[in-house]
Amino acid sequence: MKNILRLNISFPPKQLDEVNWGTIIPKIKKEIDLLIDPDRQPQLPKADAKFYSTLASEFRYLQKAYRDDTAHSRSWFDDPGEVKLILDHVGNFMQHLTTRVKE
Question: What pLDDT digit, counting tens, does each position of 17-28 carry?
Answer without folding.
Answer: 666 667 777 887
